[in-house]
Amino acid sequence: MTKLKLGPIMEEKPMKATLELPASLHRDLTAYAELLGRQTGQPVRDPVQLIVPMLERFIATDRGFAKARRAKPMGDASS
Questions:
Q1: Biggest distance spanned by C-alpha atoms of the chain
Q2: Rounded to an integer, what distance in angstroms lies between the CA atom of residue 43 and that of residue 33?
Q3: Quick check: 45 and 12 in contact, CB under 8 A?
Q4: Would you tell me how many other CB atoms lie within 10 Å of the CB of residue 33?
Q5: Whole domain around residue 54: which residue ranges?
Q6: Which segment of 5-9, 17-21, 53-57 scores lowest on mean pLDDT?
Q7: 3-state SS track over 5-57
Q8: Amino acid 79: pLDDT
Q9: Which of the pair, 43 or 12, is modelled with greater confidence?
Q10: Cβ-based neighbour number of residue 49 at 10 Å
Q11: Taking burial as the number of CB atoms within 10 A of a residue's CB, which of 11, 21, 33, 34 is the most buried?
Q12: Is residue 52 part of a domain?
């Protein structure tokens, strides 16, 4: 079985965000949710639940972002 980058989805208190997804992205999220459910044994009820962990994973593994963040802390008003 293919090793996916995401693990089980943790339930946390959500923050409200509204966005529109292209139909093709929603289909991909649905397919990913299906595979993830099979891999982890924990079905994903709503594929939209994958968006936050995917973004977290993306940010956590983006070397350019990490380097920029180390070089100049975000939110620094002195620039």
A1: 50
A2: 8
A3: no
A4: 20
A5: 45-71
A6: 5-9
A7: CCCCCCCCCCCCCCCCCCHHHHHHHHHHHHHHHHHHCCCCCCHHHHHHHHHHH
A8: 46
A9: 43
A10: 17
A11: 33
A12: yes
Is the pLDDT reported for residue 51 higher than 50?
Answer: yes
Q: What is the DSSP letter of 79?
A: -
- For all residues of the chain together, what is the average pLDDT? 85
If one counts the domains in the chain, the total is 1
User: Would residue 79 count as lying in a domain?
Assistant: no
- Model's pTM, two decimal places? 0.69
CA nearest 11: which of 53, 58, 56, 55?
A: 53
Question: How far is residue 41's CA from residue 1's CA, in Å, rounded to a whole number?
Answer: 13
Residue 15 predicted with pLDDT over 60? yes
Helix (H, G, I), strand (E, B) or coil at 75: coil
Query: What value does the mean pLDDT take over residues 7-14?
Result: 77
Chain-centroid distance of CA 6 in Å reads 8
